[in-house]
Amino acid sequence: MADKVIENNNVTIIGVVKEKPTFSHEMYSEGFYNVQLEVPRLSEVSDVLPITVSERLMTDVDLEAGKEIVVEGQLRSYNKFVDGSNKLILTVFARDIKPCNDEDLTNPNQIYLDGFICKKPIYRTTPFGREITDMLIAVNRPYNKSDYIPSIAWGRNARYSENLNVGDRIRVWGRIQSRDYQKKVSEDHVITRTAYEVSISKMELYDKENQEEFEQNEEYEEMQEDSDV
After folding, report:
1. Entry pTM
2. Is the CB of residue 67 less than 8 Å from the CB of residue 56?
3. Count of structural domains within the chain
């Protein structure tokens, strides 16, 4: 069952632990911890990405602040009630962690997703004229669960994906990025939040005849209520 998850949602990131892991939750007597990982881009900017790590993976690897590690796993989502509405939370669920070696540094941020368009893509241009299409991709996992992954296509991929429809099955390759934005919560109060999304570098559309059936579930209907998505 685990192998099936890895086939359609596969993440490898390499970065530096920002601070000591903090306890998140316990499930079936297994503790899970939150880790903030600083992952470099090709530019001088870095992405700080949230990682969820089982205590069982922490016995043989040092996760103290400043340590450089390799994380392999999946990008997962869940809903959390924040400030009166449902908020889509993303985290990299670690399947394996190891210390970083020099040969691991070729591409420090990689993700592959095989999923379905579950919200009509939105095409726009930036003030600098860059073309962008925002998409929400549903990626199935076992036990009738799905992860909902905000994704961004650029340039010709943006123009192509603008015409995709809800239910279309696609494969995408890219990286996970973080960005800060401001949200106005009252007339005189603005808060800063961090959003996470997949920046797509390559994409493929499945042949319609070979495409599996896409079904929206109650989890997605609840998540649609979140104004931050």
Report:
1. 0.86
2. no
3. 2
